[in-house]
Specification:
The protein has about 120 residues and is an alpha/beta fold. It has a single domain, classed as Rossmann fold. It contains 5 helices and 5 strands; from the N terminus they run E-H-E-H-E-H-E-H-E-H. It has a 5-stranded parallel sheet, sandwiched between helices. Helix 3 links the parallel strand 3 and strand 4. Helix 2 packs parallel to helix 3. The protein starts with a strand and ends with a helix.
């Protein structure tokens, strides 16, 4: 069985590198995009099984990326988990209202991330 593909869209290189390394350790095929525009292109081209999406990014923020993912027929059904350092009142409900499956606050433990991912794959 081929490993599940996970796309991480985050503008912080260290987060992308360390999270992709952890995801590979858990048996996933992981790749990163450093901004919203390249993340949307990667999502359309590589058809990941799940997307991890940062909210606070320069240019197109994560909410705008999520909206575009949900508007595109090729990406609208890909599960999205929001990863954010920003505190949101009722953040999980806000994420779901905007079309994401879940929200994980940074910093997070790799095991916590893996358990959340497994819920949606």
């Amino acid at each position: 069985m081929e490993p599940k593909k996970i796309l991480l869209i985050d503008d912080e290189r260290l987060i992308v590198q360390s999270t992709c390394m952890a995801l590979k350790f858990f048996g996933y095929e992981a790749f990163g995009a450093m901004n919203g525009e390249s993340g949307l292109a990667d999502a359309a081209a590589k058809k990941p099984d799940l997307i991890l999406l940062d909210i606070m990014m320069p240019g197109m923020d994560g909410w705008a990326v999520l909206k575009k993912l949900r508007e595109n027929g090729d990406t609208k059904n890909i599960p999205v988990i929001i990863l954010t350092a920003k505190e949101y009142f009722n953040g999980s409900a806000m994420a779901k209202q905007n079309g994401a499956q879940d929200l994980i606050a940074k910093p997070f433990e790799p095991e916590e991330l893996n358990e959340t991912i497994k819920k949606y794959l």
